[in-house]
Amino acid sequence: AQTVTQSQPEMSVQEAETVTLSCTYDTSESDYYLFWYKQPPSRQMILVIRQEAYKQQNATENRFSVNFQKAAKSFSLKISDSQLGDAAMYFCAYRPGHYQLIWGAGTKLIIKP
Amino acid sequence: ETGVTQSPTHLIKTRGQQVTLRCSSQSGHNTVSWYQQALGQGPQFIFQYYREEENGRGNFPPRFSGLQFPNYSSELNVNALELDDSALYLCASSAGSTSGRNEQFFGPGTRLTVL
Questions:
Q1: B99 shares contact with chain A (CB less than 8 Å)
Q2: What is the pLDDT of residue A96?
Q3: Cα–Cα distance, B108 to A3 (Å, whole number)
Q4: Which whole number is the average pLDDT over A48-69?
């Protein structure tokens, strides 16, 4: 079965510091996509960063970067210079084909001022 | 450019009733996906519509059904509501169905409570 596991239900970080959120997934596919989404209290899912499995280079979007380890089926998210606005639920998601996203249970990120 | 919108925002129903949730896709998008997000969990894929046809379905019973209209807006219908159907229902639209890299843009969701 294709599953996504986020082992950290909650993480906290001091403002301006760096935090890493973990994600592992299980698949037999060779071509797929991985995503990190942010869900603030407003409930709207916002795409943070995307990684294509065939690309070895780790994706980066400003303060957000990933560590993609295909052989280990690991896809962690690093947030640098954490800001108060980063506080939210973060979901890791996997997309094996062209439709459904398979989601982890989420990690609640708390930013301490 | 108008984003994805959903209506209503909140809804309360009783067990056994039927409900219809609505989604307007982002301009230029022809694909709509529906997800169910129970409290404290990640979303679960219900189904996807591409150009008015269902082209993918998750592990949900037939009482969950949908429609997509020529303007690519969509409805999610749930019959014979059960207590476990209480959840946030998310709609996402994207441009095209044939590439996994097409970003899905999400609406704010409809919070359904079944009593």
A1: yes
A2: 82
A3: 25
A4: 93
